[in-house]
Every structure is written in C-alpha cells, then in structure tokens.
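Structure ticket #2291
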Amino acid sequence: MSDESIWSSPPTGRRLETGDVDPRYVGTIGVLGRADEASLRVARRNMREIPAKDIEGEGKYLLEKTSGETLEVITSHVELIDPETSGATAFTVRDGLLVPLRPVGWRHEANESRRLGEVFGRKATGRDPMPISDGPVIR
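Resolution: structure written out below.
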C-alpha cells in the first residue's frame, strides 16, 4: 500500500480574488444612521438641526450650549418622516452620523396602559381542546 491511499492528497485550487476593501479597514456598527444628503434633507424638513459646535458632552445625554437644555440621544430607530413617534425634536451630525435627539424623560404614550383587567385570558374549562405540540408524538 502506498502512502497516498492512506492519506488524502493536499487540497488544490486557485486563490480567490479579494475585493477593493482594505482588510485593515475599521467600520462602524450601531444604531445611528449615516448623514448622507438624502437623510439630512428629510431630517432638516422635520426636525431642527443643532450644529456640532453647539453640542457638548459624550454618551447618552448631550447639552445644547445655546439654550442650556439637556437632550437624550435616541438609540432606537427614528423614522425621519415622522420623528414625533420616537420623540425626536432635533438632530446633530457627529463623525458623519446623524444623531437624533429628544428631551430627557420623554415617554411614548402608547407604552403606558391605563386600563385594568386581563389581556386575552380566561380560566380553562374541561371542554377546551388540548394544545397541539409541534414536537414528535410518542405513542
């Protein structure tokens, strides 16, 4: 028996072409969108723009130096066409990203319920069908 029949041969093939992206490139992943021309145009139509020089601070809360108001950075999706749904009242541009802002302590009214009672629930009776399992049936 030869050694080749026991061991498989080394893999053969060709080297795949790489794209134009530099492998040392560092990107960003986050909730903030890019401040491209289209998104800035829509944001300017529906919210006030605060220049980056008038914003102070880092993190979740930023201070607007001209009015002294503290604003919260919105870390969830903001619909630029209807910013009121997320409480966005202003925005600024930092590091090429559009940073939506809202007043500190803003709460969405739909998240609060003022009704008492059960939600789609009742006590089961003997006439109710048993739930069907998605798992295998054991007989």
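Closing remark: Residues 50-106 form one domain.
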